[in-house]
Amino acid sequence: MKINSEILDRQPPRNLDAERGVLGSILLVPTVCDEVSLILRPEDFYDDANRIIFTHMREMNDGNQRIDTMLLSERLKRAEQYEQIGGASYLAEILQSVPTAANAAYYAQIVRDKATLRALIHSSTEILRDAYDDGTAPQEMLAQAEQKIFAILDARSSGHVVSIEEILHEAMSRLDKRITHKHAIGGVETGFRDYDNLTGGLMNSELIILAGRPSMGKTALALNVTEYAAMKGGTTVLFVSLEMASAELADRMVCTLAQINGQRLRNGMVGTAERTRLVEKMNELGQAPLYVDDTPSRTITEIAATARRLKRRDGLGLIVIDYLQLIEPDNPRDPRQEQVARIARRLKGLARELEVPVLCLAQLNRQAEASRDNKPRLSHLRESGAIEQDADVVIFVHREEYYATNEEDKANLAGQAELIIAKQRNGPTDTVKLHWFKDFTQFRDAAQVPYEEFEQFNAAQSYAGEEPF
Q1: Residues 38-82: pLDDT tens digits?
Q2: How far is Cα 116 from Cα 384, in angstroms, rounded to an integer?
Q3: Which pTM value belongs to this model?
Q4: In a designed cystine with 464, which of 188, 271, 353, 386 is the match (CB 3.0 to 4.6 A)?
């Protein structure tokens, strides 16, 4: 494949008149430098002379120095750049390039747009070069290409100052909705009433860490939340599974929904009524806006790319990742603690960028089992304290039954589970009581159905299949 030589021979996008218009406007009315600086950076100028002049203008403005032709000339002379920019004749040309400074922001936007096009051309050229190099795997190359394109968008995104009046209008609107719908919450509902009341649900732009030791039920809890959000709440959910295959996830979800023992399903020991329930729940689950990515060894860049595409195509209300320590680092040579810290920061950035909650599972270190009461703490988060720092909410799932050493204690603790809200940036910390039904890999609110009733149902359930509670 040959690259069209006509494309390569064309001049990069630029508008030198607009560049001179920006500089001339600042010389006429120096106060517009603040407005222009919010739009432009020195590297956005195509012409070297214009870039040098704008750099000096910004430095003078930042230093509270007056900007005029004479002072600018003296500064350029001291920097030995006066002749480089064209001397007095070019400064005079700039000053005469615009009759008024009223259109400074408009000129600045033109310069910025041309700089964006040049950046796009540069990134595209790098992508073309990499595509001809056989040393990189195609999937990795695609991820790098998308990262380069989105880096342009991220770099050009500019923040804006919002008045407190606008912020209060939005706050009042949210308050009105909660008052009108008395049981409504602000975020994505999890299906666990006490947790939702304490936290307001999974809030947009927040990073929620769900942590626990192995076999505590982290994945089961995440799937329970996913099922409820997608099926009951109609929320579009992206479930990124780095540990389990999509087929295994599907088996667990339909067993939970149909209230069928997972082991019996794996062994094919289900009756007619149970098969009917399975088909019904499969049909219901198939209609839910739920997407699963079970590609192993995903990097945060690849996860972000998948989420952005889904957001643009179908909308997105929740991202669930199982689990943080299995996310591949962008730079494997970095120390592990730095890798995890960088991943946590980027997950928080992804939540803010897409304005959706990110629920990410995480492992705890062995210190949790060495503690006197076996209860997990923030210091037990594995491999990095940055997880605690960047997370808006940290939840631990804990089942004391797991640590029981004799049959009597196991019987007394059977089915008891806790959601420990160890950190909540915008709310209280507390513990939520849950019931754990291991046969269905399901958590439920402790007050919803007594555990004993479920145990009786499970023991009496025949292969013909009785209707569950």
Answers
A1: 788 888 999 999 999 999 998 888 777 888 899 999 999 999 999
A2: 37
A3: 0.67
A4: 271
Q: Is the dihedral of CA 259, 323, 292, 344 positive or negative?
A: positive
CATH number of 5-154: 1.10.860.10
CB 441 within 8 A of CB 223: yes
Distances, alpha carbon 8 to alpha carbons 12, 125, 278, 376, in Å: 9, 10, 59, 60
- Give the closest residue to 97 by CA, choosing from 73, 123, 72, 69: 69
- How would you label 354-365 residue by residue, b for 16+ Cβ within 10 Å and e otherwise? bebbbbbbbbbe
How far, in Å, CA of 344 to CA of 116, rounded? 29
d(CA 223, CA 254): 11
pLDDT tens track for 418-462: 888 888 888 888 888 888 888 788 888 876 655 555 554 444 444
* Domain map (residue ranges) of the chain: 5-154, 186-460
Beta-bridge partners for 207? 358
Side by side, which strands form the sheet with 358-363? 290-293, 237-241, 318-322, 358-363, 207-212, 393-398, 416-424, 430-437, 442-445
Instruction: Write down the catalytic residue from 35, 243, 248, 455.
Output: 243
CA-closest candidate to residue 303, choices 335, 364, 349, 234: 349
Q: Which residues contact 429 (CB under 8 A, 6 or more apart)?
A: 421, 422, 423
- Per-residue pLDDT, averaged over 295-312, amounts to 81
Rounded to an integer, what distance in angstroms lies between the CA atom of residue 253 and that of residue 440?
9
Quote the tokens at residue 289.
């806006």
CATH architecture of 186-460: 3-Layer(aba) Sandwich (3.40)
Q: Is 243 a catalytic residue?
A: yes
